[in-house]
Amino acid sequence: MLNFKVLYASLRYTKTNPMKKIEHIGIAVNSFDVSIPLFEKLLNTHCYKTEEVASEGVKTAFFQNGPNKIELLEATSPDSPIAKFLEKKGEGIHHIAFDVEDIVAEIARLKAEGFTVLNEVPKKGADNKLVAFLHPKGTNGVLIELTQEIA
Ligand code: ZN
Question: pTM of the predicted model, to two decimals?
Fold first, then answer.
């Protein structure tokens, strides 16, 4: 027998697929000197880029391994959000980033669904992306990043 509640829910969420795929996983680390060689060994590939995002007080290092992308995050100042995260939780997974087609539309959709968007205007992130973050209090403790490639 058809479960109409499930059918309705699946129709609602498959009309469009705005959260296309996981774009990368962000990992907070204490030191690039230690962690870049470690992830190069782990993934058997070179770090293809490091980039500072001064506005966030963070340095980023990127690895691409097949379809999978990892971003390491190192704090550049003691009052950066990454420094605070490391102080509170230690090294580990910091956020999950989703690739979206239209970040402005996604921000509006997620706001309407009741999520708290930390920056309602997308900002320039690392690796040629526009980014926005959802507050982890509304997403089971996981910081969610939306990313859209800058054309
Ligand atoms: Zn990220």
Answer: 0.87
